[in-house]
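Example S7 (structure tokens).
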């Protein structure tokens, strides 16, 4: 719910517009028996009053209503003001982080050894005009007989945008003799990339901190600990109570902006909570990646009439990327994304496709109804985008 701070000022009798201020000055002028009767806006007296009284008062009211009051409350504070709130509850924004993971390399044959040098670049096709790159972080040698092997990589820059879904990183800009293909697999991310924590997720962490004062035995304390890890928001953590492993036990299911975190990443969180002592006495808390539900989708695209072949190709690719964004495989579009315990609206997805792509006349999905989730996150197992006939 939006907060009207000007209404808050009006309720305590503070004038908020120039007309209201001018009327107050005129009423005071009359009460004091002033002989000045010329109340025209061209009157020298009122022009002076406007210059030395009304305008400075208007600046102060604007400062109060637009800056000071909104930043007095956690709900609407932003920027450095929100940082001060965070300091008050012993929190700081999480810094930006570069994604780290592994890429699968497939050889043309398994005879002999083959070394992938550190600094090798793996790219994506252009997504909304931008190419994302990963860089191998150390030399890796495939031994004789090894056809498929993995190489550790780090994103070229920090940010969540590099946490792309499986299959996006698939291009070697400089071909390597003996390598047939490269690909990021389903759980390629070991450490998800993250942007510097934005206002809204930081605000949610600050709010949660008020509930986490005791630091033991309740959801808010565990939420605070888990959300310390880059890429995890407080509203991306879902608890399962009911003592799933007996008295004192509970589960936490975790997701990230790019969907499901890797098991290695979740293991690092469990190590922090369970082995490093960040849990209540007698508590048995285990974190898991959010369970997934498989979704297979065929999309029929109908472009506007007489569209050039090159633009049809771009349209199909753009539609595929936006749908994958909705399923958390990239972050290049403003698309409504999937969530646990929600209804993913196909009609809304169609609307967003039409708003984004002006060359799209119509689009059809082979799914007959919305995707309704419980404690699970829909995950694309197959997406086919084809021209409608």
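Recovered sequence:
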């Amino acid at each position: 719910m939006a907060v009207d701070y000007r209404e808050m000022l009006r309720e305590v009798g503070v004038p908020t517009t120039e007309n209201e201020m001018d009327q107050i000055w005129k009423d005071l002028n009359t009460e004091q028996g002033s002989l000045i009767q010329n109340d025209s806006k061209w009157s020298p007296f009122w022009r002076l009053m406007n210059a030395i009284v009304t305008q400075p008062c208007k600046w102060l009211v604007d400062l109060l209503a637009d800056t000071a009051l909104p930043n007095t409350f956690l709900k609407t504070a932003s920027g450095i003001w929100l940082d001060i709130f965070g300091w008050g509850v012993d929190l700081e924004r999480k810094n930006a982080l570069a994604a780290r993971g592994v890429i699968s390399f497939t050889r043309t044959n398994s005879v002999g050894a083959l070394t992938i040098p550190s600094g090798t670049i793996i790219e994506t096709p252009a997504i909304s005009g931008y190419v994302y790159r990963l860089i191998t972080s150390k030399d890796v040698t495939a031994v004789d007989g090894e056809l498929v092997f993995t190489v550790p990589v780090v994103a070229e820059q920090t940010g969540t945008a590099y946490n792309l879904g499986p299959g996006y990183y698939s291009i070697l800009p400089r071909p390597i003799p003996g390598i047939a293909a490269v690909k990021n697999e389903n759980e390629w991310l070991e450490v998800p990339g993250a942007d510097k924590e934005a206002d809204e997720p930081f605000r949610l962490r600050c709010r949660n901190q008020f509930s986490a004062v005791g630091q033991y035995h309740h959801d808010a304390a565990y939420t605070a600990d888990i959300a310390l890890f880059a890429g995890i928001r407080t509203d991306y953590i879902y608890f399962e109570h009911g003592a799933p492993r007996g008295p004192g036990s509970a589960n936490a299911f975790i997701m990230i902006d790019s969907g499901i975190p890797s098991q290695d990443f979740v293991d690092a969180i469990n190590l922090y909570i369970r082995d490093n002592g960040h849990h209540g006495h007698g508590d048995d808390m285990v974190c898991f990646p959010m369970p997934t539900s498989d979704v297979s989708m065929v999309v029929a695209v109908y472009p506007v009439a007489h569209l050039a072949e090159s633009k049809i190709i771009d349209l199909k690719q753009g539609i595929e990327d936006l749908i994958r964004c909705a399923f958390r495989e990239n972050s290049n579009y403003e698309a409504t994304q999937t969530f646990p315990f929600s209804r993913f609206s196909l009609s809304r997805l169609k609307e967003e496709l039409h708003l984004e792509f002006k060359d799209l006349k119509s689009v059809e999905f082979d799914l007959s109804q919305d995707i309704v989730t419980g404690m699970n996150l829909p995950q694309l197992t197959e997406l086919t985008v084809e021209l409608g006939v």
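Notes on this example. Residues 77 and 167 are 40 Å apart (CA to CA).
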